[in-house]
Amino acid sequence: MTLFADHLTLSYQSNTIVPDVSLAINHDEITCIVGANGCGKSTLLKALAGILRPSRGEVRLNETSLSRWSRKALAKELAFLPQDPIAPEGISVFQLVSHGRFAHQGLLGKVSEKDIEAVEMALKQTGMTAYRDRPFNSLSGGERQRGWIALCIAQQAKILILDEPTTYLDIGHQYEVLSLLKKINRQHKTTIIMVLHDINQASQFSDRIVTMQDGKVIADDSPINTINEEMMNRVFGVKVEMQMHRDGEKIYPVAIPLCAGQ
């Protein structure tokens, strides 16, 4: 399953945000897009998900432009979780997650045994089975985020695209969500593309980091080859001290910001 951006120009009305970006997403990997606020990260992500139509260029999935995919066919291959999804008032966790099955249902939208099995499996994988009958909006922030991820899992797409999935979560729930995504990637070979603000979390949990500045990709490599003092100063305007950490077999860099004058 190959997702490829070919010379994308992305604009809102007459304002060009991303002037010319080409990018190939590697199968089965976790790719994090990082950069300062306003650099075009979320804009690029929406184009990769088929939400934003490019002014020029195209995004191709399996060599076919996203513009030529039907909504249902694309949903079977690609799931997108925006930064601030909104659930209908009063909907239960099970009902919310069931919405991930729309692409697999017929014209009448009849729920099959296969749909129910997929929803139950998604709840189990995200640790949400005990919450299945709870009103979704009664859950904590971390629980709601796991619910949204369960919806994406129930969709059974091969590519999962997330825009800042840890926003508004405390640090414990941030790591809970990122660990869940890593588990999904490793166990089910789901390709994951996400925008993260925390550069050290991106370093720890991703296989590849795409760094953006002023709408352009200025670096695209593994965390150990991307995150360094020069990059942190250039992109974020902060001086750092670099340390190397280990997570299992993975060695990754961690940037420690220095106080002014150091």
Automatic annotation (TrEMBL):
It is found in: Cell membrane. It comes from the Bacteria. One of its GO terms (molecular function) is ATP binding. It is a peripheral membrane protein. One of its GO terms (biological process) is iron ion transport. It holds the Pfam family ABC_tran. InterPro entries: AAA+_ATPase (IPR003593), ABC_transporter-like_ATP-bd (IPR003439), P-loop_NTPase (IPR027417), Siderophore_ABC-ATPase (IPR051535). Its main location: membrane. Keywords: ATP-binding, Cell membrane, Ion transport, Iron, Iron transport, Membrane, Nucleotide-binding, Transport. GO terms for cellular component: plasma membrane. Residues 3-239 form the ABC transporter domain. PANTHER family: IRON(3+)-HYDROXAMATE IMPORT ATP-BINDING PROTEIN FHUC. Belongs to the ABC transporter superfamily. This is Putative siderophore transport system ATP-binding protein YusV. It comes from Grimontia marina. The lineage of its organism: Bacteria, Pseudomonadati, Pseudomonadota, Gammaproteobacteria, Vibrionales.
